[in-house]
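User: Please fill in residues for this 156-position structure.
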């Protein structure tokens, strides 16, 4: 065990052990690295049921990643969430890959529907887009780094 030291007195005689209560609400502050004048403040309240639902969904997506396939909510239909790709009331309008972008998710969804099965990550339109942005992009190295992180070791 690492000894605790008081930053003011340099010893441990003035320290008290305190049991903190679980966080129930708080603020998250964001400051842009590129422009510190751009800031945001978010208030949150801890919702255990919401958090558990999120963790459950993350476990599902992790399994898809481990299997090397894109998570799909469905393999039929026009949009995986039932939205329209181009209408003003669609959340896709806010996505940089949506109406003014490359529609990467639309391409992948259409390929999934055409196959009637899940699309391997290596065949996602996003891989080609990543290589346009970073010519040395290597999905194998990215996956290895993610697995190393999950396993608690440093990725090279």
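Assistant: Residues filled in for all 156 positions:
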């Amino acid at each position: 065990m690492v000894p605790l030291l008081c930053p003011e007195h340099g010893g441990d005689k003035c320290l008290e052990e305190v049991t903190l209560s679980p966080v129930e609400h708080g603020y998250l502050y964001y400051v842009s690295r590129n422009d510190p004048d751009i800031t945001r403040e978010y208030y949150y309240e801890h919702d255990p049921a919401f958090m558990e639902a999120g963790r459950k969904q993350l476990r599902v997506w992790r399994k898809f990643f481990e299997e090397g396939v894109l998570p799909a909510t469905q393999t039929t239909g026009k949009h995986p969430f039932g939205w329209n790709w181009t209408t003003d009331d669609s959340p896709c309008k806010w996505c940089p890959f949506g109406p003014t972008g490359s529609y990467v998710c639309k391409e992948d969804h259409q390929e999934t529907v055409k196959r009637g099965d899940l699309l391997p990550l290596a065949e996602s339109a996003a891989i080609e887009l990543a290589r346009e942005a970073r010519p040395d992009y290597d999905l194998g190295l990215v996956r290895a780094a993610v697995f190393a992180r999950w396993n608690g070791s440093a990725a090279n």
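For context: The helical segments are 48-67, 104-115, 125-133, 139-150.
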